[in-house]
From TrEMBL:
Family classification: Belongs to the ATP-dependent AMP-binding enzyme family.
Gene3D superfamilies reported in the protein's UniProt record: 3.30.300.30, N-terminal domain of ligase-like (3.40.50.12780)
Occurrences of domain AMP-dependent synthetase/ligase (ranges): 57-365
Protein name, as recorded: long-chain-fatty-acid--CoA ligase
Species the sequence originates in: Pagothenia borchgrevinki (Bald rockcod)
UniProt-annotated location(s): Cell membrane
InterPro entries, per the entry: AMP-bd_C, AMP-bd_C_sf, AMP-binding_CS, AMP-dep_synth/lig_dom, ANL_N_sf
Topology of the protein relative to the lipid bilayer: Multi-pass membrane protein
Membrane-spanning segments: none
Domain AMP-binding enzyme C-terminal as annotated: residue spans: 489-565
Length: 613
């Protein structure tokens, strides 16, 4: 009753002030409250996404669940194949209830069978980015706490590179192949083909609650190597409900070309289970096949990140650009100009931009369709989902506080740090095995003494009309090609090269691209010259493509603070313009397989879009 009294009172005030978005604001908050109520009900009975899948299989066993290439897997197929995967793990005798298995593979149906199978036996999975190698791969595996690794056949070379270190830790390694030639590595598919597909006892997962981990998904965070964010079964339910809040229904066909090891890809899979719908799964995003796939599979809902939408808009126009059934696009990171171009070219597709973090406890959805915004600020939303945008010093990377020690809310139009209250209704689970980084995400005494808020690490701004816009990331992370890049990790890798003594890594804006391209200011080792070919080969071997610095700047010394922290603000502002920088500049040239001098002519070709990044 109290809720409705609040709604009515706010309604009268809104009508008085003539807020044109009032009814949409109320409707959105009601939807979120209904979703919260639904998940609370599930928590009382420990009803998980897996339980919803099992019910969906009983409701429509022969309905297509996964469309992959020319293959079709029904809900019954998925049930039986996940049972087989579960039995391979059980029969290995390696796992006990609550254990974690690391999955090292890209987008393919078996990824889903493995996860479902693990939850069926009361275990969880850590999703390793299939682009990581060497030191990063070992780090991510270690912090997952897993003792078992399952890898795709095409990733065996990457596994072989770290195999001695894994065997030293007594890790069991499976490869998804029918027959494996490498000693000490087991074949998973062969065992799976001989396993029973009969249902497993629910007793195997009787210890699980919705607060138990469903998966660990890696995020670069603000510093260091990727960190494993714990995704509980309750959190997975919250993620699964995003597309529904955005307008997806039980008649839709969802297209997933984003990586399943990322939150955006995996929650699409979970949301499909929630609605009992069909997923068209692509092994990897293809700009040339995107719309062909949408037509082939009668796709009605797509998931995106900003880069995908820009790639699609940059393709040559075709007469059949509007010949498709896509009605809804759900994702994040789309630029306002790309948004306009997309709907102008490809038709009346509702774009629902959302904001959220893998490890976060709060989210926004642009339910009104305002181009460029990520959501709206309203009294009701703050009342039931407490959050704030606070003033933030980007130099010291700390919130500004008043004389009483409390944080100061940012003014309208002023970029500030988004924080959200941590509570039983909105928990923050932290990072697996990293208490220090987990604590850095907790802010105390934000709006009142004794409160506790989650530090999103993102700058947002609220305009006078109460629309919220994403401004930038803070700290030592930037985003490029849809991936988070941790600068300290890149710097650690670069300084392994003999000729480089020290590196300060940061992101710079490049006209026409979302996010920031990697750039490193480096100081050379005394007595050694810059070996451009060797540096290229090193970053190619040890860093995924998105994390490789596109630009290098050679300095005689690197500027640091009194606490020896690298200064980045000036470097970021100067960018990579040789007209303004006297230091030697280099550009990563994929064709020459080297870092080549960045001349004024090359700079002009890059900024005009004639040289592609």
């Amino acid at each position: 009753m109290l809720v409705w009294i609040v709604f009515a009172a706010v309604g009268l005030l809104a009508l008085f002030f003539r807020n044109p978005h009032f009814f949409r604001d109320v409707q959105f908050v009601r939807k979120k409250l209904k979703t919260r109520s639904r998940i609370l009900k599930y928590m009382q009975t420990n009803y998980s996404i897996l339980d919803r899948f099992i019910d969906a299989e009983k409701e429509h066993p022969h309905k297509p669940f996964i469309l992959f290439g020319d293959e079709t897997f029904t809900y019954r197929d998925a049930e039986e194949l996940s049972n087989k995967a579960a039995r391979v793990f059980l029969q290995s005798g390696l796992l006990k209830q609550g254990d974690t298995v690391a999955l090292f593979l890209g987008n393919e149906p078996v990824f889903l069978w493995l996860w479902l199978g693990l939850v069926k036996i009361g275990c969880s999975a850590a999703f390793l980015n299939c682009n990581i190698r060497s030191k990063s791969l070992l780090h991510c595996f270690k912090c997952s706490g897993a003792r078992t690794l399952v890898a795709a056949e095409e990733l065996q070379d990457a596994v072989d590179e770290v195999l001695p270190a894994l065997l030293e830790q007594q890790v069991t390694v499976f490869i998804l192949t029918d027959r494996c030639q490498t000693a000490d590595v087991k074949s998973f598919k062969d065992q799976m083909s001989h396993a029973s597909s009969e249902p497993l006892s629910k007793d195997l997962r009787s210890h699980l609650t919705l607060r138990s981990p469903a998966a660990y998904i890696y995020t670069s965070g603000t510093t260091g190597f990727p960190k494993a964010a714990a995704i509980s079964h309750a959190k997975l339910w919250n993620l699964a409900c995003i597309p529904s809040l955005a307008g997806m229904n039980s008649d839709d066909v969802l297209y997933i070309s984003l990586p399943l090891y990322h939150t955006n890809g995996f929650f699409g899979f979970a949301s499909a289970i929630d609605r009992g719908i069909t997923v068209a799964l692509r092994s990897k995003f293809s700009v040339s096949q995107f719309w062909n796939d949408c037509r082939k599979y009668d796709v009605t809902v797509i998931q995106y990140i900003g880069e995908i939408m820009r790639y699609l808009c940059n393709t040559p126009k075709k007469p059949n650009d509007r010949s498709h059934k896509v009605r809804l696009a759900v994702g994040n990171g789309i630029r306002a100009d790309v948004w306009r171009d997309f709907i102008s070219r490809f038709g009346n597709v509702k774009i629902r931009e959302f904001y959220g973090a893998t490890e976060g406890n709060f989210g926004l959805i642009n339910y009104s369709g305002k181009i460029g915004a990520v959501g709206r600020d309203s009294f009701l939303h703050r009342r039931y989902f407490p959050h704030a945008v606070i003033r933030f010093d980007v130099e010291t990377e700390t919130p500004l506080r008043d004389s009483s020690g409390l944080c100061i809310e940012a003014a309208k139009g002023e970029p500030g740090l988004l924080v959200s209250e941590i509570s039983l209704m909105a928990p923050f689970s932290g990072y697996m095995g990293d208490l220090q980084q987990s604590e850095k995400k907790r802010l105390h005494d934000v709006l009142r003494k004794g409160d506790l808020y989650f530090n999103t690490g993102d700058l947002l701004r609220i305009e006078e009309d109460n629309f919220i816009y994403f401004q930038d990331r803070v700290g030592d992370t930037f985003r490029w090609k849809g991936e988070n890049v941790a600068t300290t990790e890149v710097a650690d890798v670069i300084t392994m090269v003999d000729c480089i003594k020290e590196a300060n890594v940061y992101g710079v804006e490049v006209p026409g691209y979302e996010g920031r391209a990697g750039m490193a200011a480096i100081n050379l080792t005394e007595g050694l010259r810059f070996d451009s070919a060797a540096v290229f080969k090193h970053v190619e071997n040890f860093l995924p493509a998105y994390a490789r610095p596109r630009f290098l700047r050679i300095q005689s010394s690197l500027d640091v603070t009194g606490t020896f922290k690298h200064l980045k603000t000036k470097l970021v502002a100067e960018g990579f313009n040789p007209n303004q920088i006297t230091d030697p500049l280099y550009f990563l040239d994929e064709k020459d397989k080297s870092y080549v001098p960045l001349t004024v002519d090359k700079f002009n070709l890059i900024t005009s879009g004639q040289i592609k990044m």
